[in-house]
Amino acid sequence: MAYRIARTCVGCGICKVICPVGAISGKPEHVYHIDPAVCIGCGACGRKCPHKSILDKNGKLARRIRLRKHWPKPVFDLDICTACRSCIEVCPVSCLERQPATGNRDTIRFPALKNPRACIACGFCERDCPVDAITLQLMVQ
Asked: What is the CA angle 86-114-74, rounded to 5?
């Protein structure tokens, strides 16, 4: 289900910039709009909106987390990961990739967060993991 923009929107455009799929449109200083047919429900717009104008799929105000370094990131449990690549394929910002083979368990190439700054904390990797090997956690800086 798509996120929505409330009338409190001032048209700053930050939501449009962070949206990984281009679902947000509008003119500066006017209320922006999220196309529900395009929105993937990642919530990045709500975490970034400085005017508390994004409503989540339940109609509740999305929680703003001002700094991206405070957004949770995927952590992989390599003891149970099967290296199926589901997490890599579902990531809307392509911030995950397969690690070089490490010698562990022969030539299995496990997923890794290659670009933490690009991660939008959507949680798709965590939800799509068939063996629950991924959790979103705050990274200690």
From this structure: 55
Q: Burial, 43: exposed, middle or buried (Cβ in 10 Å; 0-12, 13-18, 19+)?
A: buried
Which sequence spans correspond to the domains of the chain?
Answer: 1-66, 68-137
Which of 18, 39, 19, 16 lies closest to 28, judged by CA? 16
Q: Tell me the per-residue pLDDT of 35-92, one tens digit each, with 9 for 90 and over.
A: 999 999 999 999 999 999 999 989 999 999 989 889 999 999 989 999 999 999 999 9
Determine whether domain 68-137 maps to CATH 3.40.190.10: no
125 burial class (0-12, 13-18, 19+ CB within 10 angstroms)?
A: buried
141: enclosing H helix or E strand = none
Taking the model in full, what pTM does it have? 0.85
